[in-house]
Amino acid sequence: MTSFSNWLDQVVSVASYNLRTIPERRGAAFTSAIGIAGVVGVLVGVLAIAEGFRLAMTASGAKDIAVVMRTGSDSEMTSGLSRDETRLISDAPGVARDGDTPLTSAELFVIINLPKRSTGLDANVPLRGVEMTAVKVRDDVKIVQGNMFESGKNEIIVGAGAARAFAGLDLDKEIKIGQNVWKIVGIFTAGGGVAESEIWTDAAVLQPAYKREDSFQSVYARLSSAGSFTEFRDALTSNPQLKVKVLRLSDFYAEQSEMLTKFITTIGVFIASMMALGALFGALNTMYSAIASRTREIATLRAMGFSSGPVVISVIVESLAVSLIGGAIGAGIAYLAFNGYEASTLNWATFSQVTFKFAVTKGLLIQAIIWASVIGIIGGLFPAVRAARLPIASALRET
User: Fold this and answer.
1) Spatial separation of the C-alpha atoms in residues 30 and 22, rounded to whole Å
2) Which residue among 132, 192, 250, 384 is least enclosed by CB atoms within 10 Å?
3) Within 13 Å, how many C-alpha atoms sit on residue 176's CB side?
């Protein structure tokens, strides 16, 4: 126990001395820290895109809401349901009711072109035809300006994200979509979810405008409870009159976001990995230079009885400290620069724009610090081993 205590005292003594002398090597230490800050900043910035998109896609994914589409369809764009089928879905067990009215909404999904406010270039925007019960099915939808569209009229309400991102979507304005002119009567939010990227109107008005006759593409249903999903799904999939797939809304949105999220994450990690190699070489160079300038000091410590272990650990601690400073700088800059930054990107499942905000989460910041720590430990390990192996006699003779 005494020998371990002595060893620990040596570690503390040498490590504290190394940390106190960092300002003497501030040029090299600063360069190394900035390199690591760049790695962390890029990593957090890119992953914040993926995290923000994922959060936007899943924010409205309540466990007690189900979406029903035709069997074999991978998105609403490729689905199709008749009026009779939507009625059978509404009458299924497990559906919540408002009095005698089932809380379901048979819906259409079409894509229109609108110019972005930022660039003036056209982009695909979702136009969704819904039933009047849609706001009760999705209870996170709130009209924040204006009012709900009236049934049977060429009126639309616009998601807050779409209103900010696309030109012409201002309250009380009129906009020509297809052959019809529509009046914008309301702006709505949806808890930051994907619905905020959409434009809503009455499905009964949208059907003839796009020659959809009496067909729909999906049915959204609020369930009596999250536990009612199995009963609801089994009743529909076992009904010989229906050929449908039933998903929880949370699972549906997770599927929609998975491909793009994985792609962005892969790209981010790849770029950060390439930059990390450069930062690692910078850390190695810094620590090798530090060892070279303190050869006699290290040899003196060894001659005084300090063992190799404390020397190795002290050099790694120094490298880790520089890396953590760089990591903290990079993470802080990334948070200030990216968190909450609003953008839009293409949802590959529907080929329409989704507006979202970059999200620098606690998990990303922790991940960034881990990356900085790994660079610091590896960057200090090899110089530390070299320092511990310096021959005492020859090192003392160095000038």
Assistant:
1) 10
2) 132
3) 2
